[in-house]
Amino acid sequence: MKLTLQFDPNQPHQLDAIQSVVRLFERMPRQQSADLLQQQVVPNLPPFQTLCETWLYDNLTQVQQKNGIETLGALEVDEGLELEGVSSDSWRYPSFTIEMETGTGKTYVYLRTIHELRQKYGFGKFVVVVPSIAIYEGVIKNFQITREHFRALYGNETVNLIPYDGARLSQLRGFAASTFVEILLMTLDSFNKVSNVIYKPSEKLPGEWPPIRYIQETRPILILDEPQNMESATARAALRTLHPLFALRYSATHRTSPNLVYRLTPFDAYRLNLVKKIQVLSVTERGNFNQPFLSLRAIETGKRLTARLRTYILEKGRLREGEVTLAHGDDLAEKTGREEHRGGYHVSEINADQGFIEFENGIRLHEEETLGPSRPEIFRAQICETIQQHMEMQQKLAGRGIKVLSLFFIDRVANYTAPDGLIRRIFDEEFEKLKIRYPFYQPWQAEQVRSAYFAKKRDKSGQEEAIDTQSRNQAEREAEKAAFELIMKDKERLLSFEEPVCFIFAHSALKEGWDNPNVFQICTLNQTVSEMKKRQEIGRGLRLAVNQNGERVTE
Q: Is the pTM for the entire model greater than 0.85?
């Protein structure tokens, strides 16, 4: 029997978030009705805000006061030029911020908010903008699994989702002309450059209008999913180019919060039992691994005497293992960017005859000597602990029909995919050792219970190869899209006991847009130090678990 996820329409925190937005438009001035604002062609209509900011601000302050949010002296609006090279015009619109902790139903809330805005005010044109293929596929999946649920709640109201595809531009005419509720789903990358096909005349849309005009003339309502990824000057200009009526911003990790109308903090979510406690295993949480990792690879004599060391280097908020070259008097902290190396890690001596480097704090390293745990030791300790915690948890929850999942964020794709991939090899060895103590896993081999989600492409010879999903060229983005279609469509099967896979390995791609309710352990082998990225990674496992009937388990 296929597992079907169930939805509770009466969760107070979700209803509060929805009604906080709906109340913004109470007593809407008659001349600004949804029919007028969102008809297909509205010649010379000034932006919504210039006529109604006072009325809208009054509603906003009432909502903020009810929700215990500090009010400001005026409505915050975004105003500026549209995308350079597309238009020299400017646009002005307000954005409203909804902050919801990951795992509390953010996508459900904004999809249901669309239904409420239609029912109460007649709004019918929405554009959901997402920053990545992962979230794009996640929205499609959420729309599919909630469709019947919303039909039952809203009298079979017809709501259509159009995943934007530059090869199917004719869909935009249908979006503009339809009398039903239309949701256009777009990635930011699909309209943030002048070269995007949406700005060019097309034979698929004969006439003088470029494709973008069909969106602009509807004065759409924007739904921004994870808007902290859309705050560059170019992104903001691209959003203005859509000619939005207003925008609704949804995230757990906002960088800015214009016109905040609702907030559900991590503490609130935990206090209200809306998320579960998960195991997070990281090198920073293991006492023996707090000491600096340094390995002297070689003493080199050339124009000057230097020492080549391997250590962890901080770049763009992420630690990576790499090499630095030091000369006498150099400060290791300046080379690595790490606070752990400040104070005492100036080079006091490099000795080529005896093959060592010494720092002012007295630490001396000889060639091929390592200070602190090596990477394989760290990985093995973390992986072993994760597997054991996973098996313990599954043993406790099996009788309640809950399948336990664990998620690994790894540092490099090759550490899993290479023939001698370090992480995959360690996992297999530790799984086979531990399963002897847990009957639930004794029938399975390691390769049957693990799976990795990395985008793949074919090289010139036709051989399939793994790629790093942080790469951004067109071929790799298309491969990433195909990989995530599989992830989102198979969520129900992954939750079923019929599927043996329960350990999932990922790189950077699953940090946003993929939420599986039964992730109980997260093992971070990638050493993220950015607080926002860490929250995003941990957020993959905050949802309340579901059983084999698809029902949320709250206790």
A: no
